[in-house]
Design a protein that fits this description.
Elements lengths: L2 H18 L17 E3 L2 E3 L1 H9 L2 H15 L3 H16 L2 H15 L3 H16 L2 H16 L2 H16 L2 H21 L1
Antiparallel strand pairs: 1-2
Length: 187
């Protein structure tokens, strides 16, 4: 998911949330009579939605109008995907929702290249088999339990490994495999 698509996903998510909460788009700021429905561009709008629309600031209205235009231009599969994500979000506990908001805030403040990197890693993660994900989580939890000095040493070793040439990495992997095989054979 590229940066633009990621941002649009979040905006559509917010738009869907706003619409689901009853904040509707209306062409005019007029509230109809009690029980009466108004027609706005794109369909009927309830009096409650119109009332909420009137409570929005001009800036909020402008943002929503722009998002609605983008929403109209989305293909049906993309709309369905966004609606599904919104429904999943609605099922979260308040603590989980807060965690999502905190993480989104952190993500928003990252440089674009770092966000892209995270999105790519997430894509790879989603494709991993459940057993591999379980092993990775276990390693992560073991790592978190290590003392800070030991974690730092591991980070340094990882950085050193990453700086090696591919040929050297392959050579070291082969040496490691050989040592493992030698140990197994000596038992």
């Amino acid at each position: 998911m590229n940066n633009r698509r990621f941002r649009s996903y979040i905006f559509y998510f917010i738009l869907t949330a706003a619409l689901a909460c009853g904040t509707g788009y209306a062409g005019a700021d007029q509230t109809p009579a009690e029980g009466q429905e108004s027609t706005a561009k794109g369909g009927k709008v309830s009096p409650e939605a119109l009332r909420r629309w009137q409570q929005l600031s001009p800036r909020q209205k402008q943002k929503l109008k722009g998002r609605l235009e983008q929403w109209k231009n989305l293909d049906p599969e993309r709309k369905a995907e966004i609606k599904q994500k919104f429904q999943q979000y609605q099922q979260l506990s308040p603590e989980q929702k807060e965690k999502v908001r905190r993480n989104w805030k952190k993500m928003k403040n990252l440089p674009p290249e770092r966000r892209r990197e995270i999105v790519e890693k997430y894509k790879k993660w989603k494709q991993l088999p459940p057993e591999q994900k379980r092993r990775i989580r276990e390693k992560f939890h073991r790592l978190k339990k290590l003392p800070p000095e030991q974690r730092q040493r591991l980070r340094e070793r990882r950085e050193k490994w990453q700086s090696l040439a591919p040929e050297r990495k392959q050579e070291l992997r082969e040496k490691f495999r050989q040592k493992v095989n030698d140990r197994r054979n000596s038992r």
